[in-house]
Specification:
By secondary structure, the protein is of the alpha+beta class. The N and C termini lie far apart (53 Å). It folds into two domains: 3-60; 81-148, no CATH class. Helix content is 43%, strand content 14%.
């Protein structure tokens, strides 16, 4: 399949019915399509069409990815805190959200909330609210839009 044909096929994906996308998934991947939405199918099918036409990852990259996924804990990544936003370990943060009082403790390497460790205040805020929040704004340490 030449690159022009691949471009045509990729461009046609958004206009296809969900059933046609699922059928194409079965043909290209030889598996049942995942139970995700249309957008997911379109993106992954576009990637698969290009992969089949242009080639996939190099064997060296695939082996490296396999090694990385086989590691139990994965690579150790230290949580990053921007300069000027340092909180002392042991600091307890308190916030009322929808009538419920929430407490979070600052650790040396993250934050503890309800016995669970989080890498950032934003992760704690997202866990509590179910939506994206800037952790420093949620916990009242900074106003929204305020620069450091």
């Amino acid at each position: 399949m030449n690159s022009i044909e691949v471009i045509r096929q990729v461009a046609a994906l958004p206009g296809m019915s969900t059933e046609a996308l699922k059928k194409m998934w079965k043909e290209l991947n030889e598996t049942e399509p995942p139970a995700f939405n249309r957008t997911f199918l379109v993106k992954r099918l576009a990637h698969r069409l290009q992969e089949l036409s242009l080639g996939g990852l190099q064997a060296k990259s695939e082996k490296r990815m396999e090694r990385m996924s086989a590691e139990e804990d994965g690579p150790k990544i230290e949580p990053k805190r921007p300069q000027g936003e340092k909180l002392l370990p042991g600091t307890r943060l308190l916030r009322e959200w929808k009538g419920v009082e929430h407490r979070c403790t600052v650790l040396d390497d993250g934050f503890e909330y309800q016995g669970r460790k989080f890498g950032s205040l934003s992760a704690v805020a997202n866990h509590i609210t179910g939506t994206k929040w800037n952790g420093f704004v949620f916990w009242g340490l900074r106003r929204q839009g305020e620069k450091l």
